[in-house]
């Protein structure tokens, strides 16, 4: 049994990781800004074996609107976690990064969020080099699942569409729908995190792309929904900071983390839009 700290444990992905570690009988401690616990000031005492760092302001649109505040939460807090881990005998720190660092595949972020994650990845590697703290960065692509909670205007498209179907409201399509996304189910993300913790290798700040290795257009998802429900769609302009296409190269994750996505895109969409108990809309 290991003693583990999970920052952002009340968030979407953090909550899944926290619960999985509990089920594995680890001694797990969580800290989250939702509980008024700012990681800059509220980190626990005592030594820990592993840290999963997920605390962040995770939405691209929100960072576009609030770049300086989110810089503090996404970069300065990360730096604090690294210092604390160095000083508390942590064996390894697993960082939840994002495909946003890759931009349109050219390595140039298109949003403050992507820039923040890239800055943190650089510091992650630096701490491994300077202090011998083993670190690893997991770049999630578009995380989703049938239990993802709706969070208002900053929600992901799939999450927002599930909620609007429940409420019997029109669905909004940002852009023309030809933009493509690599959708990765949260169950596969949790697997990668646990695998990164258990690995015997030295990572030294290495970053891995975590996705399905496949990509579908938003129109593909729209057509999937339309097959099962009578839906009204509203069109909206593309969102600032969003990239046009995402596709994960998961070769390194397969090799080093024994990663093989278990939930296909069609199975995941079925869970979200067919098997899920979506109410207040007429099925076709």
Give me some keywords for this one:
single chain, 284 residues, alpha/beta, six-stranded parallel sheet, 9 helices
Set down the secondary structure blueprint.
Elements: E1 3-7, H1 12-23, E2 27-31, E3 50-53, H2 60-65, H3 67-87, E4 92-98, H4 112-131, E5 134-140, E6 142-144, H5 157-167, E7 171-174, E8 180-181, E9 183-185, H6 186-198, E10 206-210, E11 216-217, H7 218-228, E12 233-236, H8 251-257, H9 265-275
Helix pairs in contact: 1-6, 3-4
Report on the structure:
This protein has 284 residues and is an alpha/beta fold. It contains nine helices and twelve strands. α4 links the parallel β4 and β5 (134-140). The longest helix has 21 residues, at 67-87.
Q: Which percent band covers the strand fraction?
A: 15-25%
pLDDT < 50 stretches: none
Q: Mean pLDDT across all residues, rounded?
A: 93
- Provide the gyration radius in Å: 19 Å
Shape descriptor:
globular
Strand order of the largest sheet: 2-1-3-4-5-10
Tell me the helix content.
Answer: 25-40%
Number of strands: 12
Order of helices and strands: EHEEHHEHEEHEEEHEEHEHH
How would you characterize the largest beta sheet?
6 strands, parallel
Distance between the termini: 50 Å
The assigned structural class equals alpha/beta
- Helical region count? 9
């Amino acid at each position: 049994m290991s003693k583990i700290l999970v920052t952002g444990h009340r968030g979407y992905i953090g909550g899944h990781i926290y619960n999985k570690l509990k089920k594995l009988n680890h001694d797990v401690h969580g800290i989250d800004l939702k509980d008024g616990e700012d990681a800059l000031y509220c980190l626990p005492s005592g030594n820990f074996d592993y840290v999963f760092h997920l605390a962040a302001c995770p939405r691209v649109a929100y960072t576009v609107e609030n770049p300086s505040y989110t810089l503090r939460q996404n970069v300065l807090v990360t730096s604090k976690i690294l210092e604390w881990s160095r000083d508390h005998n942590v064996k390894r720190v697993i960082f939840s990064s994002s495909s946003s660092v890759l931009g349109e595949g050219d390595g140039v972020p298109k949003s403050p969020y992507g820039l923040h994650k890239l800055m943190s990845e650089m510091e992650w590697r630096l701490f491994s080099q300077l202090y011998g703290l083993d670190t690893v960065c997991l770049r999630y692509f578009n995380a989703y699942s049938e239990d993802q909670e709706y969070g208002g205007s900053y929600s992901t498209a799939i999450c927002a569409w599930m909620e609007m179907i429940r409420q019997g409201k029109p669905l909004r399509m940002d852009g023309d729908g030809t933009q493509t996304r690599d959708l990765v189910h949260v169950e596969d993300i949790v697997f990668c995190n646990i695998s990164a913790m258990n690995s015997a290798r030295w990572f030294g700040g290495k970053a891995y792309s975590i996705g399905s290795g496949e990509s579908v257009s938003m129109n593909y998802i729209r057509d999937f929904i339309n097959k099962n429900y009578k839906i009204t769609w509203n069109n909206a302009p593309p969102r600032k900071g969003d990239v046009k296409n995402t596709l994960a190269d998961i070769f390194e994750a397969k090799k080093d983390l024994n990663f093989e996505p278990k939930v296909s895109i069609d199975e995941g969409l079925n869970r979200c839009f067919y098997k899920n108990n979506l109410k207040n809309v007429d099925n076709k």
